[in-house]
Amino acid sequence: MKKNKMYKFIISGGGTGGHIYPAIAIAGEIQRQYPDSQIVFVGAKGKMEMQLVPEAGFRIHGLWISGIKRKLSFSNLIFPFKLLISLIKAKVILQRFKPDAVVGVGGFASGPLLYMAARKKIPSLIQEQNSYPGITNKLLAHKANTICVAFQGLEHYFPKEKIVITGNPVRSDIAKINITKEEARRKLGLNPNMTTVLIMGGSLGARTINEAIEAGVDELNDENIQVIWQTGKNYTGSKTVAKGIRLTFIKDMAQAYASSDVVVSRAGALSISELCLVGKPVILIPSPNVAEDHQTKNALALVEEKAALLISDQLVEPNLIKAIIHLCKDEEQQIELSSNIIKLAKPDATKEIVHQLMTLID
């Protein structure tokens, strides 16, 4: 491939941070390797990507598309019309932009775009983050040229000959954190010398985690543990934090990771990939509201390597605060967890995905 050639790519998908941030990471790596390349995104109107992608410096087109709800609703009744409109718009975008290849990262917006790309014989790559793939990627698998995955066993869902195990793409600022713990804490307005726990349940929030922290944050503060508590946008609790900060959403995750001594997190695929890279001691609480309980599978892969602790969602309320306090006081266990989790990192995942993408061109 020619570094100075103007390659053109469309990256499609979104709906959650677990789809959007890998997409942005792939786009950033394409630009790093091929500075003259042109990249546009295609997302779903009203979803997070319509804000986060422009903030990352990329153009995005929105499709009028959404998933089918389990219950009978007006949204389901108009779904065929929305799909038809989205297919037509995807076709127009492809005709006008004329990409060399397209990338789908999951989420409903990637469906119309990759389907129409296959109709026009434009090379396509799917990036699947999870151990259990989403419905859109499963439907598109036979039309894509290459499928990049992060977990073993995906041949149950995708054509085996198309699968390449690359790991999940992680944003470059997280892959190479260049700020000290003390500096990061000062920038967040935290005590630079106090034990710090990062608590996060995803962009929408995790009810059980939030309720446990709401009930026990004073106990953490009494133990001289300050918190960075990301509640997610859906949580309505009103508890204030005496030592630490409470945020709806964390934009600078590199800074938050750098600040922390211990992390409490859901076990989504992107979170797992980031945690392996930053090498922090972590307590994982898998979400029970995911297909095939794949977050528990993600977490167990780390627990088996003594690289993380696990608390099931139904046991969060009686156990989380105690587990945080115990881990914060046990430096030996922190060192063991950190050294083991960092061995599982795939720091070159994004580069490998871009390599696989470029092999589809010419």
Secondary structure: elements and pairs:
Elements: E1 8-12, H1 17-33, E2 38-44, H2 49-55, E3 59-63, H3 74-77, H4 79-97, E4 101-104, H5 110-119, E5 124-128, H6 135-140, E6 146-149, E7 163-165, H7 172-175, H8 181-187, E8 195-200, H9 207-222, E9 225-230, E10 244-247, H10 253-259, E11 262-265, H11 269-278, E12 282-284, H12 294-303, E13 309-310, H13 316-329, H14 331-342, H15 349-358
Parallel strand pairs: 1-2, 1-4, 2-3, 4-5, 5-6, 6-7, 8-9, 8-11, 9-10, 11-12, 12-13
Summarize the structure.
With about 350 residues, this protein is an alpha/beta fold.
Major sheet characteristics: 7 strands, parallel
CA-atom Rg in angstroms = 21 Å
Order of helices and strands: EHEHEHHEHEHEEHHEHEEHEHEHEHHH
Order of strands, main sheet, comes to: 3-2-1-4-5-6-7
Number of helices: 15
Which architecture of the largest domain does the CATH hierarchy give at level 2?
Answer: 3-Layer(aba) Sandwich
Shape: globular
Classify the fold: give the CATH topology of the largest domain: Rossmann fold
Task: Name some characteristics of this structure.
362 residues; alpha/beta; Rossmann fold; 2 domains; seven-stranded parallel β-sheet; six-stranded parallel β-sheet; 15 helices; globular
Can you give a write-up of this model?
The chain is of the alpha/beta class. The protein folds into two domains: 8-168 and 348-358, Glycogen Phosphorylase B (Rossmann fold, 3-Layer(aba) Sandwich); 174-342, Rossmann fold, CATH 3.40.50. The chain has 15 helices and 13 strands. Strands 3-2-1-4-5-6-7 form a seven-stranded parallel beta sheet, with helices on both faces. The model has no long low-confidence stretch (mean pLDDT 92).
